[in-house]
Amino acid sequence: MATILDFVHSVFTKVYSKDSFIFKEGDESDGNMYFLFQGNLKVFKDRPEGSDKAIKELFPGEFFGELALISGRTRAMSVQVLSPNAKVGVLNKSVFEKLEKTSPQFLLLLLKNTFEKLNRAEAKLESLYAEIHKKEEEAGPVPTITPASPSEGAII
């Protein structure tokens, strides 16, 4: 039975320099997921006002980009190199499909990682909801606006 190690030779590696992007939010999926071998990466989302919101820092041994590989959707976040350089392994769709069929350990690791990401996102949403709710309570009741009746001189 094949293991993840049997496919290591099929993983293409690439070295990225500081501040370069592995991919950017909104990019079309290239059919790849990535493994960080050396260096540090920043995962972030763009904000409408032009700044970005750091989501997570990635360290060697972590993988990313699997959601776009599986779903084929555009990239949901940007990934940029923080360290002087980063060595990244690139797992393409065909190797992924072989692993999918032969390595339940790989799929379990991928599933656990995805659940961790979902749990972090859910916790963040709950925190934001609580913060918004608290601000609404501090602001007091929102005044209601009653439409004027025609007898009060409203323009009809």
Automatic annotation (TrEMBL):
One of its GO terms (molecular function) is cAMP-dependent protein kinase inhibitor activity. Residues 1-99 form the Cyclic nucleotide-binding domain. GO terms for cellular component: cAMP-dependent protein kinase complex; cytosol. Keywords: Coiled coil. PANTHER family: CAMP-DEPENDENT PROTEIN KINASE REGULATORY CHAIN, CAMP-DEPENDENT PROTEIN KINASE TYPE I REGULATORY SUBUNIT-RELATED. The keyword Coiled coil applies. It holds the Pfam family cNMP_binding. This is Cyclic nucleotide-binding domain-containing protein.
